[in-house]
Amino acid sequence: MHGHYTSGLQPFKGHSDRMGGLHHRRIIIGDVHGHYQGLMTLLEAISPGKADRVYFLGDLIDRGPDSAQVVQFVQQNHHQCILGNHEQLMIDAFPSGRPFTPALQAWLYSGGRTTIASYGDTSKLLDHLDWLKTLPTYLDLGDLWLVHAGVHPLLPLEAQSSQEFCWIRDEFHSISRPYFPDKLIITGHTITFTLPKVAPGELAQGCGWLDIDTGAYHPKSGWLTGLDVNNRMVYQVNVFTQTLRTMQLEEAVRPIEPAQVLAYRQTMLNRI
User: Fold this and answer.
1) pLDDT in tens, 119-149
2) C-alpha triplet 226, 32, 74: angle, nearest 5°
3) Maximum distance among all alpha carbons in the chain?
4) Which residue has the higher pLDDT, 5 or 224?
5) In Å, what is the CA distance from 110 to each residue of 90, 103, 206, 215?
6) Are strands 184-187 and 209-211 parallel, antiparallel or unpaired?
7) From the CB of residue 96, how many other CB atoms can be counted at a distance below 10 Å?
8) Is 134 exposed, middle or buried (0-12, 13-18, 19+ CB in 10 A)?
9) Over the stretch 146-179, which tens digit does the pLDDT of each residue have?
């Protein structure tokens, strides 16, 4: 990990909100992708208290083995979660509670097969689907703005939809000035090592944004990330080895050069 710290993270600071007279931590979890055991190991290490707030950046499901358990855990514990593109794919596959074949095929191709396999019961899947449909596309926490993928830099917020918030990549990561002057955008969606000069497991920092999707499901990484905002601590578990590690945010972050994003990502895609 590299300690390249820049002023781009300055809006990101300890929060002084109080609940019952106690300071609470804000803990943000990156894309889980069905890795329930890894999530449990991560949360045990973070050890959130009753007053702490845990936020999920979407993509609870698909690719990993235990999507149903992940969704049930987040729902039952009333953790706040935003809509990811994989939840959107699942919703689109069952528009009226019944499968819609073209969208279903797209979802299955994108990792939905493991999700269906994790549900032994269709009624449970449909129950979870109703909950997924209620998820917001972003959460504004004042100094932080949580969204799955990012924002379109050229459009005002009111002109954007789940298409931008759940799916955008290169246009957002290429921005050369922060979208918000006073909020740090925290995202998942794009695996950090697909951005220029970012190693597997490192967080990626751009102009006014921080990406914490370290690619839990990906064989080149396996790292699932939790971020304790107040204490500027990064917790990570490798879902393949159950290895745990903890580091200061400054150690975990790799700043990227916005001008390099488009060419680098194109090179990466051509290799796949």
Assistant:
1) 988 889 999 999 999 999 999 999 999 999 9
2) 85
3) 54
4) 224
5) 10, 11, 27, 15
6) parallel
7) 6
8) exposed
9) 999 999 999 999 999 999 999 999 999 999 999 9
Look up residue 153 and give its DSSP letter. Answer: T
What tokens were used for 160?
Answer: 């954007």
Residue 98 contacts by C-beta under 8 Å, 6 or more apart in sequence?
none
Number of alpha carbons in the 13 Å side-chain half-sphere of residue 193 = 15
> How far is Cα 170 from Cα 258, in angstroms, rounded to an integer?
9
- Residues present in the chain in total: 272
Look-up of token digits 């994003």: 261
Is pTM, for the whole model, over 0.90? Answer: yes
Q: Give yes or no for a contact between 59 and 189, defined as CB atoms under 8 angstroms apart.
A: yes
For residue 54 the two structure tokens come to 């845990």
Angle subtended at Cα 153 by Cα 263 and Cα 81, rounded to the nearest 5 degrees: 100
pLDDT attached to residue 20: 41
Q: Per-residue pLDDT for 19 more than 60? A: no
Buried b / exposed e over 155-172, threshold 16 CB at 10 Å, is eeeeebebebbbebbebb
At residue 212, the 3 state secondary structure works out as: coil
**Residues 170/265, Cβ–Cβ less than 8 Å:** yes
Helix (H) or strand (E) holding 92: helix 85-93
Query: CA dihedral defined by 244, 227, 69, 89, rounded to 10 degrees?
Result: -130
- In the three-class reduction of DSSP (H, G, I as helix; E, B as strand; rest coil), residue 177 is classed as coil
